Amino acid sequence: MADKIETISIDGDQIFTISVSTSQAKHITVTSTLDGEYQQQFQIITKQEANQLGIKLEPFKFATIADDKRNAHKVIAATLVLEIPEGLNLNVISNIGSVNLMGSFNKLNINLSQGHFYAKGDANSASISTVEGYIKVITTYANVEAISKNGMVVLDVFKSNNTSWKLNSINGDITVAKQE
Questions:
Q1: Whole-number Å distance between alpha carbons of 150 and 23
Q2: 3-state SS, residue 3
Q3: Measuring CA to CA, which residue among 14, 32, 19 is closest to residue 118?
Q4: CA–CA distances in Å: residue 1 to residues 4, 10, 25, 27
């Protein structure tokens, strides 16, 4: 049961795709797929502290990965899929991952280096930052502040309300469309 959970925080380093959808269910479902030469030496770890659930990819404690030149080219391909109750806070930080969201969230705080961000749904407030990836949001209502240093910004016009989306990218395009 997710009764006490208010925030889900994902350390998405080394996870290529993070997909989160919301539902009216009262539980949290976590599914992961690991592939690659080191797939047997990694696992997704969940840890609850107070009202926060932390999720990250970690090597098994007993696994030792040799530090040689050949291993620099061996990777692990990990994906993470979550189904969570509506209205929770979601924090994601990732060096390579892309984030795909569907549903209704309270607060979003997403920081991505190489990956893109896609959301279809609503949030009371959102702060989304990418370095290389695009940002695409499809929502029913939003007060949007969007800045891309080297990309294009395309925003639909929304009626004013109390929601706030702050979108920033260095090299990615930003698109916010009205959900019909």
A1: 36
A2: coil
A3: 19
A4: 8, 19, 9, 5
- Give the C-alpha distances (Å, rounded to integers) separating 39 from 56, 77, 161: 15, 8, 46
Structure tokens at 86: 């509506």
Measured from the Cβ of residue 92, the count of other Cβ atoms closer than 10 Å reads 25
pLDDT digits (tens, 9 = 90+) for 130-176: 999 999 999 988 899 999 999 999 999 887 788 999 999 999 999 99
C-alpha dist (Å) from residue 51 to 4, 89, 108, 156: 5, 11, 16, 36
The alpha helices in 25-167, defined as continuous H runs, are none
pLDDT tens-digit readout, 69-84? 544 444 567 899 999 9
d(CA 109, CA 53): 15
C-beta of residue 118 within 8 angstroms of C-beta of residue 100: yes
| Angle (CA) 56 22 121, round 5° | 110
